[in-house]
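Translate structure to sequence.
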């Protein structure tokens, strides 16, 4: 019995080191979590009501892009852009969807482009691209985030 109690005391003293584990600091945990997050992708892409019922992430994204492109084309269809710049058939528009569900549109032109009056085209876009349906912003880790993407908008359909 004496040997058993000595053995038990020996085990108790040695087992304390198993319970004395280092607790990682908050900074270490934060850095580890930040490294694990993919900042280039969102959990859910922006969406409109028509696309919300689609379950697949890629199909919902494609639906959103198609609906938004179609809405932009409809708003610019009968505009002075076609009259002012008959050679302009497609314009790339940088769309920014903010966390508060507002949107901003910026035309994208080649850096060496002098054929277009970029200020005039930008003002036409700002005047025409208003009153869109409600856009749900992108979601990252449960929070709405700002997203940007470039859509090619066809102005002339032949």
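Result:
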């Amino acid at each position: 019995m004496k040997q058993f109690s000595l053995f038990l005391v020996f085990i108790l003293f040695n087992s304390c080191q198993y319970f004395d584990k280092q607790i990682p600091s908050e900074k270490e945990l934060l850095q580890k979590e930040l490294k694990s997050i993919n900042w280039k992708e969102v959990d859910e892409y922006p969406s409109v009501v028509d696309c919300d019922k689609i379950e697949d992430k890629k199909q919902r994204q494609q639906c959103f892009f198609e609906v938004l492109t179609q809405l932009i084309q409809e708003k610019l269809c009968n505009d002075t852009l076609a009259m002012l710049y008959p050679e302009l058939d497609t314009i790339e528009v940088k769309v920014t969807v903010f966390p508060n569900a507002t949107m901003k549109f910026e035309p994208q032109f080649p850096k060496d482009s002098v054929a277009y009056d970029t200020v005039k085209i930008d003002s036409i876009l700002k005047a025409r691209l208003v009153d869109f349906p409600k856009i749900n912003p992108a979601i990252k880790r449960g929070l709405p985030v700002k997203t940007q993407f470039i859509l090619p908008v066809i102005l002339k359909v032949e």
